[in-house]
Every structure is written in structure tokens, then in C-alpha cells.
């Protein structure tokens, strides 16, 4: 029997999944809650069980998950796990390929900590935990940007000198590729008709919009680093280089300081003092002016991205919502779609209101464009990618 552990350290959450061959035995999702941290586990397809965690429990969540797997007899002991597949968010052509983690890989990764401060430190911490508790397991790095390697030069290249671009490896790599690949693998089962052209909105603490043609990424809002693109929870997204230079001079920032500032102190957090969309939507419903303005900015930039990608694709069969915020919030989906009617993207209000945390079509029967929610399953996608290593 082959057991594989899938580890998905996000920017504000952790996910674990234990597989025997291709069958998920035990899964866990750990995220912030109103009272600190919450760990929700499920066996197979059973209902989740959720428990509050302390800060130390959050840090030690891998050990807690593995202990639970042994206690519930999914594995005889820790050593039964021979492979650990971990999601990697890091810029660079080298990191756009799935690889076995070795000393060279970790050396290269450590050099990029300030480029992706919300992801790489967490990733390195998880790798250290894996080495501690599963010293004999192979660690497989599964690239979150590999799906976007199909982007053509017209969208992948920046308008800078080609020699410098190649020498410094500066390209638009894109992220959330595992999520996009996951939903595109299943979209036609949900829509029950062919989908050649799709726009995928991944909306969680990180946010991206991706244009997909014939199953391949042709453009995405995130570029070189995962802090670029749209307004996110604590990430500012795109900012004019001139404005960035003024900011760096005014605050006496080194480049690493500016990266951390824009990725941890920007976005919704900067606009309204709160990075969590759930909290901001609740504040907005009570008439909070700052929350309303922040949500308006957030929605506006997503709408712009959708519109531009419909133009690039030359039409659309499906607008897909995925990731926690858009899977859970009918209000957020309605706000995003309300100005897209001119693109033949129209919600059925009743379907939208009743679709929460499950797959479903949100548009009316016969609509030109299917508006759908598909729950992302990055764990299955990570496992699928790891089988070739």
C-alpha cells in the first residue's frame, strides 16, 4: 500500500490530505476564525468535524494531523508515508516545474523569501516539519505556476530588454495554477456542455483571474510574484513603479522592505483595516463606509480583469468562481456579476442564493454564458501532478 501526504501551505491557511494510492482517507483544513484558529477534518466524504486550535497547535498542525491519522488507524505509523507532495508558490522558470526537493531546491527557495513573504516562509517551515516527522519520505515540490507555462510570449513577457529578461529570469509566471487546473478538469461535468473559453476567478485571501482557452492558460492577473495583479486580502496588487519609488524614498525602504510592505500591509487591509472578506462583507451590510469602499475597489478590479479576458478570448462559454470566498458568498458573486450583463454574463438570483460551498450553475437554463461555482480541489490536483515524479 502506497500512502502519500499532500501539504498545501497557503498565505493564510493550511491544508493536509492523506491518500492511499488515489483515494483520500483523511483531510484537514486549518484557517483563522473569530476565536483564533480552527481545524476542520473529514474522513473520505463524511461531514467535517471542526475544533478550535491554539497558536501552538496551529504551528504544530502537521504533527497533530499525522497523530490523528494513526489514532484513527488510517496508517499504522508515520513511517508508512513514503511521499509528501507540497504546493510551491515561487517565481522563476526553475520553479515552474514539479521537482523532487533536494539541497539545491531549498537553496534556491531561500533566496526568494522576500519576493513571496506570504508563501515561502510558511513553505520552508512545513518542509522542516516534514523532515522532522517524516525523515524517510520523499518530498515532492508541486509548482503552483506550472499550469501557466502555456502562456504565449505576448502575455508572458514584460516589455523590457530581452537579454535582461532572460539573464534575470523576469517573466509573468502566474499562480493559483493548481486551483485553475482542478476546476477546468471538472467544469464540463458541471455545465453539461463543452467549454472552450473560460474565465476562472480564484477568490480567497489571494485573488487571481485567469483566461483559459481549450484547457490552457493564456493569461492571468498574477505576474512575476504572487503579490501582483488584483487587490487581495493584504496584498496591494499592481502599483505604478513611479508611485512605488516615491513610497520607497519617503519611507526609506530597501527593496525587501517594500515587498513586505506591499504584500502584508496592502490590499483590503490597507483600505479598511481588515484582510478577511467575511468580516468586510458583514461590516458592509451594516453600512460601514470604509468596508463598502474597500469591497467596491476589490470588485471593480475583478470586473476589469473579467472584461479584458473576455475580449482576449473572443467570447466566453463559462465564468467560473472558485476558492473559499467566492464558493461561500452569494453576495460577493452578485456584486462581481452585476455589471457584466453587457457581456451576456447574468446570474439567476435564486440559484446564486442557494449555492453555498458546493458546485453549481448560477445562470438560467439556456444562458449564453454559464456562470458556475466549482469547489477547488488542489489536494487532488497536487496528488495527480506528483504521480509523474
Helix percent reads 25-40%
Q: Provide the CATH top-level class of the largest domain.
A: Alpha Beta
Spatial ordering of strands, largest sheet: 5-4-3-2-1-6-8-7
In CATH, the topology of the largest domain is named Nucleotidyltransferase, domain 5
Number of helices: 16
The topology string of helices and strands comes to EEEEEHHEEHHEHHHEEEHHHHHEHHHEEH
Strand tally is 14
Output mean pLDDT: 94
Strand content: 15-25%
Rg (C-alpha, Å): 21 Å
Secondary-structure-derived class:
alpha/beta
Sketch the major β-sheet.
8 strands, mixed
- Tally the structural domains: 2
What is the CATH H-level superfamily of the largest domain? ATPase, nucleotide binding domain
Q: What overall geometry do the principal axes of the alpha carbons give?
A: globular
Uncertain residue segments: none
Terminal residue distance? 18 Å
Q: Architecture of the largest domain, according to CATH?
A: 2-Layer Sandwich
What secondary-structure arrangement, pairings included, does this model have?
Elements: E1 3-9, E2 13-20, E3 23-33, E4 36-43, E5 49-53, H1 55-59, H2 61-71, E6 81-88, E7 99-100, H3 103-110, H4 120-133, E8 138-143, H5 153-156, H6 162-168, H7 177-191, E9 197-203, E10 207-213, E11 216-220, H8 241-251, H9 255-264, H10 267-272, H11 277-285, H12 289-313, E12 318-322, H13 324-328, H14 330-337, H15 349-354, E13 360-361, E14 370-373, H16 378-386
Parallel strand pairs: 1-6, 6-8, 9-12, 12-14
Antiparallel strand pairs: 1-2, 2-3, 3-4, 4-5, 7-8, 9-10, 10-11, 13-14
Amino acid at each position: 500500500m502506497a500512502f502519500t501526504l499532500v501539504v498545501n501551505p497557503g498565505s493564510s491557511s493550511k491544508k493536509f490530505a492523506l491518500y492511499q494510492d488515489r483515494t483520500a482517507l483523511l483531510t484537514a483544513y486549518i484557517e483563522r476564525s473569530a476565536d483564533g484558529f480552527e481545524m476542520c477534518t473529514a474522513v473520505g466524504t463524511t461531514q467535517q468535524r471542526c475544533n478550535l486550535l491554539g497558536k501552538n497547535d496551529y504551528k504544530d498542525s502537521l504533527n497533530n494531523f499525522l497523530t490523528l491519522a494513526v489514532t484513527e488507524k488510517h496508517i499504522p505509523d508515520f513511517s508508512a508515508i513514503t511521499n509528501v507532495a507540497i504546493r510551491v508558490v515561487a517565481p522563476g522558470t526553475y520553479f515552474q516545474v514539479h521537482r523532487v526537493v533536494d539541497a539545491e531546491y531549498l537553496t534556491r527557495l531561500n533566496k526568494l523569501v522576500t519576493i513571496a513573504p506570504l508563501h515561502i516562509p510558511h513553505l520552508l517551515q512545513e518542509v522542516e516539519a516534514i523532515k522532522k516527522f517524516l525523515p524517510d519520505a520523499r518530498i515532492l515540490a508541486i509548482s503552483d505556476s506550472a499550469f501557466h507555462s502555456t502562456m504565449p510570449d505576448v502575455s508572458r513577457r514584460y516589455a523590457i530588454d530581452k537579454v535582461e529578461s532572460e539573464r534575470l529570469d523576469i517573466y509573468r509566471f502566474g499562480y493559483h495554477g493548481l486551483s485553475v487546473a482542478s476546476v477546468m478538469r471538472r467544469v464540463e461535468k458541471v455545465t453539461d456542455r463543452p467549454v472552450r473559453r473560460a474565465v476562472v476567478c480564484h477568490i480567497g485571501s489571494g485573488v487571481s483571474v485567469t483566461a483559459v482557452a481549450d484547457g490552457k492558460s493564456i493569461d492571468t492577473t498574477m505576474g512575476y510574484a504572487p503579490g501582483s495583479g488584483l487587490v487581495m486580502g493584504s496584498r496591494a496588487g499592481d502599483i505604478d513603479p513611479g508611485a512605488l519609488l516615491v513610497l520607497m524614498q519617503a519611507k526609506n525602504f530597501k527593496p525587501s522592505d517594500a515587498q513586505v510592505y506591499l504584500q502584508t500591509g496592502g490590499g483590503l487591509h490597507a483600505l479598511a483595516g481588515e484582510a478577511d472578506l467575511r468580516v468586510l462583507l458583514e461590516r458592509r451590510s451594516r453600512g460601514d463606509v470604509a468596508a463598502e469602499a474597500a469591497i467596491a475597489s476589490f470588485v471593480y478590479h475583478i470586473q476589469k480583469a473579467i472584461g479584458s479576458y473576455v475580449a482576449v478570448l473572443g467570447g466566453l462559454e463559462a465564468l467560473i468562481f472558485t476558492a473559499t470566498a467566492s464558493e461561500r458568498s452569494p453576495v460577493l458573486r452578485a456584486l462581481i456579476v452585476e455589471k457584466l450583463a453587457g457581456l451576456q454574463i447574468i446570474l439567476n438570483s435564486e440559484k446564486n442564493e442557494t449555492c453555498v460551498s458546493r458546485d453549481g450553475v448560477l445562470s438560467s437554463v439556456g444562458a449564453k454564458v454559464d456562470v458556475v461555482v466549482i469547489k477547488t480541489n488542489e489536494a487532488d490536483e497536487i496528488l495527480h501532478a506528483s504521480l509523474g515524479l
